[in-house]
Automatic annotation (TrEMBL):
It comes from Butyricicoccus intestinisimiae. This is Pseudouridine synthase. Belongs to the pseudouridine synthase RluA family. Keywords: Isomerase. Its EC number is 5.4.99.-. It catalyses: a uridine in RNA = a pseudouridine in RNA. Responsible for synthesis of pseudouridine from uracil.
Amino acid sequence: MIRNNIQYQIPPEFDGCTADRFLRAQGFSRHLLIQTKYQENGLLLDGISIRSNQKLHAGQILRAAIPHIEPNENLVPVDLPFSIVYEDSDLIVLNKPAGMPVHPSHGHYDDTLSNALAYYYRQRGESFTARSVGRLDRDTSGLVLFSLHELSACILAEQMRNREIHREYRAICTGTLPEAGCIRAPIARAHDSTIERIVDDVRGEPAVTHFERLAVCNGFSLAAVRLETGRTHQIRVHMKHIGHPLPGDFLYHPDYSRIARQALHSYKLSFLHPITKQPMVFTAPIPEDMQALLSDDAHTG
């Protein structure tokens, strides 16, 4: 069940501080705190309604309501298959198949992961507003993180800004990659396209990609890839830039002889849980269409 309030026992180090100061330290943004305190019984201290400037004492129990946000009326619930890797009352981690967008957009109003989640929670009698934490391109498979309420969204967004959510990809590239490397090449929008990106030393924004070669087979390299920056199409553009584009990439290497989409997979996701603060680590196996590019005699690089 999606969380609608959160309860804290005040620790000794916050004895004498105000409720708003304490909640800000727990990850409430100023906007979220305003929404919370203006709800009926939004803040309860030992069961009694309080103002946000109320002083707290160690051992007291503070309960804060999490504001209910009405779901997007334009998000159509649709019964679509999807794979749940992990779920609790604060977040859900999914293994997205290739070909499924994360959010609705032009031409994709009812075939996205967000549509599927809206249906899933409606069947359980719960409202859902799509809040993905980071996105994947439509044809990139793998792990996607969604927050399930406003507090979780607030904390995870701050983790994203601080680069505290770590993602590792698996990419299959043409040719034999170096054993390891770091690509530092600024990325900009191509002049004649709304979606294509290029390396551009003049107009580009800084972009840094780290890779390690894991295997080589049949003219392809399997690589583990990590990003320091999050530019649109960064892995795809950088691998093309160094002469090792991803097969099946309709923008940067449209060779569909072995795979029908870019050979890129979000393999590993790690972060601190927004509420419990426990380390969370998830992996999703490389899908079959990418495995098929590498036969059993692939050798480690």
